[in-house]
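Ticket #4471: complex job returned nothing on first submit. Input attached below:
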Amino acid sequence: MSRAFNFSAGPATLPEPVLRQAQAEMLEFGNAGASIVELSHRGPEFIAVAQQTEADLRKLLSIPDDYAVIFTSGGATTIQALLPLNFAEAGQAADYVVTGHWGKTALKQAKPYVAANVAANGEAGGYRSIPARGEWHLSPDAAYVHITANETIHGVEFRDIPETGKVPLVGDFSSSIASEPLDIRKFGAIYAGAQKNLGPVGISVLIVDRELLERAGQPRADIFDYRSQLKAESMLNTPPSWNWYMLGLTVKWMLDEGGVAEFAARNARKAAVLYDVIDKSGGFYRNEVEAAVRSRMNVPFFLFDEALDKPFLKEAAAAGLISLKGHRALGGMRASIYNAMPEAGVQALADFMKDFQARNG
Amino acid sequence: MSRAFNFSAGPATLPEPVLRQAQAEMLEFGNAGASIVELSHRGPEFIAVAQQTEADLRKLLSIPDDYAVIFTSGGATTIQALLPLNFAEAGQAADYVVTGHWGKTALKQAKPYVAANVAANGEAGGYRSIPARGEWHLSPDAAYVHITANETIHGVEFRDIPETGKVPLVGDFSSSIASEPLDIRKFGAIYAGAQKNLGPVGISVLIVDRELLERAGQPRADIFDYRSQLKAESMLNTPPSWNWYMLGLTVKWMLDEGGVAEFAARNARKAAVLYDVIDKSGGFYRNEVEAAVRSRMNVPFFLFDEALDKPFLKEAAAAGLISLKGHRALGGMRASIYNAMPEAGVQALADFMKDFQARNG
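Support reply: We reran it on our side without changes. The output follows.
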C-alpha cells in the first residue's frame, strides 16, 4: 500500500514533511559530508541541532527559564525510576494517583526507592473515571505527587490540573504533551517519551523546576543524576542523536503549523468527531469512560459483538486505516489521534465506522 | 560536499548500503503503510525485525545459546551503572582494570554500588600500555573483573583475554565488538554501545551468561533489572525501535561482507597502513602507545608541531577526510577506523598524511 492513516499508540505516526526531510538528509546532513546519525554529538552540526531543538521546544511549550529541559534515553519508564532517586530521600513518602496502566507502572518503578503511597486509585472502577481531588489521601510530607496526565491505554485524561499545595506535582505527559497549552508552573516536573506526541521513539524529555534539582536525592550513579545530565547539556554520554534530530524536526513542524493553541483546536475537533460516532451508534460502538475525562489523544472503543473485531480491523486496514487494535489489557479497538494525525485521517475513520455499522448493525 | 570518509569515533560512519535502505524505507517499511519508526514495537513488522536482528547478531558473533542478548537504551554508561546493581551484592568487591578514559567511567558509575577496587591502572603511564596480568591485584571474592577491551580515546586494546579464574570477566567492547572473532565463553558478560562498530547511535547490546542473571543483585527498579528485560525480550518499555532496525541492517551487512573473520583481516590491514605511515614519518607523526597493545579501531596521533594541527584538519576536510580531530582529553588527531570504514578511506588518509608531511616536513 502507500502511506495509511496510522492510529498506533506509540511509536506513532509522524508528520510526512518530517519523514521526507529525514529521508532527504539520510546520506548527508547539509554540507557535512555525512548523515547526522554518523556525526559526533560534540561536533558543530549536532550541537546546533540540539540547541535549536531546545529553543524550539521552549517556544512551543512556553517553558519558563527557571525550568530546565533534559533530553534522556531510556524512555519514560526510566524517568519514573529516576524521579524518586533524584527528588526524594530514601524512604520518604511520595504520593501516586493511579488512573490507569501507566500510573501503575510509575508506582512500580518508584517502590524500591520511596514509601510510595497510593493517594487515589481508579482501578476498582476499571479506570473509567478520575478520582476527585477531594478524595485523595495525600501525605503531608511527600516528596512529590505523581499523576499520569493522559492514560494511553485506558483513555482517561486530567482536564484540570489538581492543586497540591507546597508539594510539587509531577506529571507524566507522554501521550498528551504539546496537545494543548499547559501552565508548566503548576508542576514541579513534567516528562514524556517522545514517541507519541513529540515525534520519534528513542528519546524522552524531562522539564523540571530548577529548584527541584537542588534536592540531594539518593545515592546513585552519575549517569542517573539529573544535575549531572543538566550540567553536561544532556550529553553526559553519547545521546540518541538521530532521535533528538527527529524530535527537533517534529517540534519545528508543530511551530510551523501554529503551535499548541492550533493543535488544541484540531485535537478537540478530532476527538469530538470520534466520540460522536461512538455515542450516536446506539450501542454498536461503546466507550465507557466518563465523558468529562475522556482522552482527546487515545480513544478506546468496543464493538457490541467481539466477533466483529476481526472483520473491523481487516476492513479498516484495507481502507488504509491501520493500527486500530486495542491494547491487550483491554481488548477492543483504540484510535490514537496525536498531533501528527490529520483531521482527514480521523474523518476517514469516522466514515468507515459509520459504514461498517451500516453493513453490520 | 558529497559523502566524505568520516573518521568520527562515534557516532561513526555507517555502511552506505545501510543508509540507502533506511532512506528507501523512510516513508514506508515494506508494505506496512508506515515507516518502521512509526509502527508499534508490539506489531508483527517490528517483532520480525527484532527477532531477525538477534538471530543475525548471534550468528555474527557466534554467541552461545547459554548467553542471553539484551538490547538496551541509555548507552554503555547506563550498563556500567547497572552491572553492579544486577551482578553484585551491596558493598561486595568488584575489580576494575583501568586502561583509559572509559575504564575510569565504568569505575565511576559502579562506585555508589560496590566496593570498587582498582586492580590495575595505566594512568601513571598516560594509558600508553596495559598493565601485565601478573601485576593485577584482584580481590578473591570479587563479583566480577571489569576491563575495557578497547579504549576509544587512548587507543590501547587488549590483544589477549586475561584469565580471571572463577570470577567472571566483564568486558566493555563498545569500540571493538565484531571487529574480530571473540570467544565469548571467556566472559561473564560483554557489552557495547552500538554507535561505533554495530551501527547506529541510541541502542546498546549486553551479551550475558545466563548464570550471571541468576544473581539477586541489589534492590532496584524493575526497568533496571536485566532479568525483567530479558523476560520481556528487551521490550519492558518502548525500545528505540528505529535504532534497533538500523543495528539489524548493519549486522546483516557485516554478515553479507563475510563476517568477523573478514573484518578482522580488513581491520588488521587498515591499522597497519596507518601505523606504518606514522612510524616511518621520522617523528613528523607520533603515536606513543606500546606497539603490542595499539588499537586496531582508534589510531590517535600527534603532529610534531601543534601549530600544524589546524592546517592538517582543514586540508584533510578539503580532501574529503573528516572528523579527525583528537579527543579534547589528548589533543592531536584520531582516526577511528571501524568495520564500516572502507580500506579505500584509510588508504586515502595515509596518502594525505604522506603528502602533508612532504609539504610541511
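The mean pLDDT of chain A is 97. Closing as resolved unless it happens again.
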